[in-house]
Design a protein that fits this description.
Acyl-coenzyme A thioesterase THEM4, globular, 26% helix, two-stranded antiparallel sheet, 217 residues, apoptosis, binds ligand 3VV, 3 helices, six-stranded antiparallel beta sheet, alpha+beta, hydrolase, EC 3.1.2.2
């Protein structure tokens, strides 16, 4: 282990066993990675934002490679399984601390669905200042999965997900996302979703999530 590395927290392994493709119980935490883990995630996102728009000199590229390699070595030394990584389980942070997701904050969960504010960043650029369509689908998949989990109080997996791109989805703008279960039919959970920029509809989702059977991979 490199200097400063801490032993991974695996203390929830026994009381929260892996039960199939996703966990039956979300391995939530507000402590893994320490009190400044959110700042770390934000620095990673900012790195990707800056890299997306940077045109470094060859000399700066050389320097950055060395610095990033040193950082990557430190992170490799504290690699852990997905169930115990702070990324994805830190419910106190945007997008549960998962730096691969467009950062969102869930503002309400009620009978009308899951309400979140999602902000696509510079590194989510598709072109011409608009969010990449695939990134819009990523936001819908995760927040649609959330609405499905709430509707069935269990774990589900995306069977299909269709997005209608109605107007440009802007970057660096807090957008309003709503996902909700329209119908539950046995294991099938039909999910709808919208992303708005104020009054303007940016995109709509129509998806099917399937409730996993016990132990299903
Ligand atoms: C506990 C409460 C907590 C509340 C708080 C929550 C906090 C939030 C926490 C965490 C949120 C996290 C959110 C993450 C979300 C991310 C989700 C993903 O990205 S998932 C990865 C991408 N998806 C895959 O990789 C799937 C790959 N495909 C499969 O694994 C299978 O095909 C699967 C499971 C989808 C279905 O397979 P089968 O064998 O289990 O089931 P079969 O029998 O094939 O289908 C069941 C029924 O569904 C229909 N069906 C299946 N696929 C369909 C399709 N594509 N189109 C139409 N119908 C389909 C079938 O016709 C069948 O219908 P009939 O029962 O006969 O009426």
């Amino acid at each position: 282990m490199s200097d400063g590395a801490v032993s991974p927290d695996t203390s929830t392994e026994i009381e929260d066993p892996h039960e199939g493709g996703f966990r039956a119980h979300t391995a939530i935490t507000t402590e893994r990675g320490g009190p400044r883990y959110g700042e770390f995630s934000e620095q990673v996102r900012t790195l990707m934002d800056r890299a997306r728009y940077a045109c470094p000199t060859p000399e700066l590229t050389d320097e950055l490679i060395d610095q990033l390699a040193a950082i990557n070595d430190k992170l490799a030394a504290v690699r852990i399984d997905e169930w115990h990584s702070p990324a994805g389980t830190r419910i106190d942070l945007p997008a549960r601390g998962n730096i691969t997701l467009p950062p969102f904050e869930v503002t309400d969960v009620n009978d009308d669905g899951v309400f979140a504010t999602v902000t696509f960043r510079d590194f989510h650029l598709g072109g011409n200042k608009a969010a990449h369509g695939g990134q819009v689908a990523v936001a819908f998949d995760d927040l649609g999965g959330y609405a499905s989990a709430v509707a069935i109080q269990g774990v589900s997996r995306t069977a299909y997900l269709t997005v209608q791109y109605r107007s440009i989805t802007p970057l660096n703008t807090p957008l309003q996302c709503r996902t909700w279960a329209e119908k539950v039919d046995g294991r099938k959970v039909f999910i709808k979703g919208t992303i708005h920029d104020g009054d303007r509809l940016c995109a709509e989702m129509d998806a099917l999530f399937i409730k996993l059977n016990p132990g299903q991979q």
